[in-house]
Amino acid sequence: MAINKVQQTLLQRMTKQQHLTVSEWQLLDHIGGGENTQEILAQQTRLDTSTLSRQLKGLVAKEMVSKEAIGRDKRQLVYSITPAGTETAATINSAFEALSDEVFEHWSTDERNLLQILLNRLDKSMDRQRNVKKPLA
């Protein structure tokens, strides 16, 4: 869809100004929200382990998150958002909110609510389809 391409371009522009990718920003938001282990992050983001590890490594290198090894064998990592990460996420989130306000400035509250209801319904339908087991070939 053309809307998706425009949205992706605008999001890339916002995140690039803060030296992050859209995926890194979304991951930073998850970590800032308390999702702090790879297991939890993988479930919430639906990313495979290698992609998630690569993105987390990038956020650690950019000093947006820190990691700490825990447990008896120190093999489990817990991620925490840093002050720089919190500030960066807040800046991008503010830009995103401003963009949303501009896009929807001529929409009534009822229209916005209807769109949200329909998007939630679409999301649930897509989740159901994703969870349907595929027949063996």
TrEMBL record:
Pfam families associated with the record: MarR_2
GO MF term set: DNA-binding transcription factor activity
This protein's name: Transcriptional regulator
Biological process, per Gene Ontology: response to stress
Domain of life: Bacteria
Domain HTH marR-type: 1-124
